Amino acid sequence: MASYANEDVLVSTEWVANVAANPEAHPNVRIVESDEDRALYTQGHVPGAVEIDWQVDLQDATWRDYIDRAAFEDLCRRKGISNDTTVVFYGDKSNWWACYAFWTFKLYGHADCRIMNGGRKKWALDGRPWSTDRVDPAPGTYTASEQDMSIRALRDEVLKHQKAGKPLVDVRSPEEYTGARLHMPDYPNEGSLRGGHIPGAISIPWPLSVNEDGTFKSAKELEKLYVKDAKLRRRSATVAYCRIGERSSLTWFVLTYLLGFSNVKNYDGSWLEWGNAVRMPIVQGPTPDGSAAPASPDTPTA
Amino acid sequence: MSTVAERLDEVVEDFVDLDGREKLEMLLEYAATLPPLPPGQKGLDENRVHECQSPVFIRVELKPTSDGHAGVHLQAEVAEEAPTVKGFVAMLAKAFTGRPTDEVLAVDDTLLDRLGLADVLGMLRTRGLRAIIEYVKRGVVRSLADSAS
Hints:
The complex is a heterodimer. By secondary structure, chain A is an alpha/beta fold. Chain A has helices at residues 13-21, 39-43, 69-78, 96-107, 119-125, 155-163, 174-178, 219-229, 247-258, 270-274, and strands spanning 10-11, 29-33, 50-51, 86-90, 113-116, 168-170, 202-203, 238-241, 264-266. Chain A has two domains: 7-125, Rhodanese-like domain (Oxidized Rhodanese, domain 1); 155-274, Rhodanese-like domain (Oxidized Rhodanese, domain 1), CATH 3.40.250.10. The N and C termini of chain A lie far apart (48 Å). Chain B is an alpha+beta fold. Chain B is 54% helix and 12% strand. In chain B, strand 1 and strand 2 form a beta hairpin.
């Protein structure tokens, strides 16, 4: 595969810089920053970009779910996003949170979403300007769709998927996959009681998809990683997961938009749900089925 | 010289009437005041705060103060990619420096509620900042034990 399945979904920092320099010429484009550390946006953002925060804006504050449809519509209006707006996401950490926000926008059916390839890191490496201006866009008009469950897997569905032996991709670090640790190296333990992975899940840590400068690997490299080596199939139902669904939304993006997979779901409950729920099957060790590792009990029948 | 509690009250004063954006700006102002770790202490695993997301190194020491008690001394190095953490650590460094250990150990995690940061940062990030307070307090306890032995 010489080029990405969907070339238009990635835009360059140069493209964004042009929009930022001439916003009047691009009234239908909204640039959105999503970061792990919110103060980064405050410190300096792409001129004209608004911020959407994964925790404060996209997560419901009471129950563990995304904001509902009405709250999403309200968020879009406030951020100056209408149904026909081209929304360009970028952020820190090789665009993890940008992909998370992209996925959430797709969940509510937003048509035109893009990612600025390389995110904050590439923008800085290119020596492009940061702005600390407060951005207060004219409100958008928005009507969201119901959640598109073709890109989201909930726990029971993942359990069925697992039992049927269908492809699962664990994108966490090797240490989290084997069960040696309950959280990312250098990250806080956000409260998983058990370590390991979903039986049958193959390990493809997310950083393998990105370059040092934060951009995505080439189509050829991604094809080798996911299709040739890992034997994932474009039309097979595939579920990606991580710890809280952020790193796996990057992998979901790569599989769906860069490699053209037709049926990939993000399991956003991820390990923080699976590793805490009662009677979920778990294996430890370096292999998908947990062989060459201490045996773990099968899921009880009663 | 004001106590830790009084200094933290002043910090809370700084934050209390600000909107979310201004709170983040205030954190950035604090971040800019954080003195660096001395060269020999940079990147040492013993100073690494493993509870933190980005590379954060905090060194807690006790140094005698002019009136003879052991004063808490806090130095830190926080990655540029984590300005929120950097600002918070700088705030603690400012409030704790030179004060007796019991004042630092008495700090509770209502500080974050009083700063009103939970609404701005969300639950998970706020939990990370709570962990930093606990990390510093553990460092104080450890330094006390070391100096007693």
